[in-house]
Design brief:
There is one protein chain. The chain is α/β, with parallel strands linked by helices. It folds into 2 domains: 128 residues, Rossmann fold; 183 residues, Rossmann fold. It has 12 helices and 12 strands. Strands 8-7-6-9-10-11-12 form a 7-stranded parallel β-sheet, with helices on both faces. A 5-stranded parallel β-sheet has the order 2-1-3-4-5. β7, α8 and β8 form a beta-alpha-beta unit. The model has no long low-confidence stretch (mean pLDDT 98). Bound molecules: glyoxylic acid. The site of glyoxylic acid (GLV) has 7 residues, from loops.
Length: 325
Amino acid sequence: MLQTKVFITRRLPIELEQLRSLATVEVWPERQPPPHKILLEKVKEIDGLLCLLTDQIDRQLIESGKLKVISQMAVGYDNIDIAAATARQIPVGYTPGVLTDATADFTWALLMAAARRVVEADRFTRAGLWQTWEPDLLLGPNVTGATLGIVGFGRIGQAIARRAKGFEMRILYTSRQRCQPELEQSLGVEFYPLEHLLEESDFVTLHTPSADDTYHLISDRQFELMKQSAILINTARGTIVDPDSLYRALANGKIAGAAVDVTEPEPLPSDSPLLTLDNLIIAPHIGSASRQTRSKMATMAIANLIAGLTGDHLADCVNPEVYNF
Ligand code: GLV
């Protein structure tokens, strides 16, 4: 039995031999995440933790153990108290880059599905309602040539812009920092303040991280600014959109539709009013779920874990300042 111990909070879609040659590996076998109480116990015995966005890695947990590394299999890490990890000089790994295209593809799938009412059309057909070709059956807006507003212009936001170019869209973006003019020009995008972007866009797609300043960034006031024909897409984090405002906006026709891969909370409770809306598509947080991407994310997360255990710098580290102490 190797002395170094790691805990992996779910089964991963890759083999773990290299890790097993370095450490005693325990993998949580259930479909549901390990309860926080179990994580609190585990963390007392382990050197490395590989976690997912469903695991709450808070200060109490971080301070209960002697972790050398936390490796998250996701690009987002809002479930981890980074300040607490940094204070303990624990590097936190994440998996940026490899999921950009898969997430942008899925965002596009949701955008197209919401615009052209693919999910409603499927329900309609299965309900036996398809009787003939009808001139006004299940109409939606054009995607080609429409105006797209991208909120948050990091890797994924930019990948969305590249796709939108192929659809001859007018592309607006907003972000904390404006891009270099050369990048704006090559992507064919225009910088707009959020409010102005909301007023102008036929489709609004969210790509900001979850943070204090993006919490409920889209609420009643923002829905008021949007066009009544607009469609909102969220594949970023549920907390960016106020769910009560989203319900009101969709139920009262403030906007035409929405498609989300993320919700607040996740999953939605079975009595959530959002589940009653026909003009809302809800996917179970599968933006990065292509086979190739999930395998690359797991490989990266294991590489970060091994680097942390063996004292190397993590290739993808959220808090590289831990190396400057
Ligand atoms: C998915 O949401 C991720 O952050 O990787």
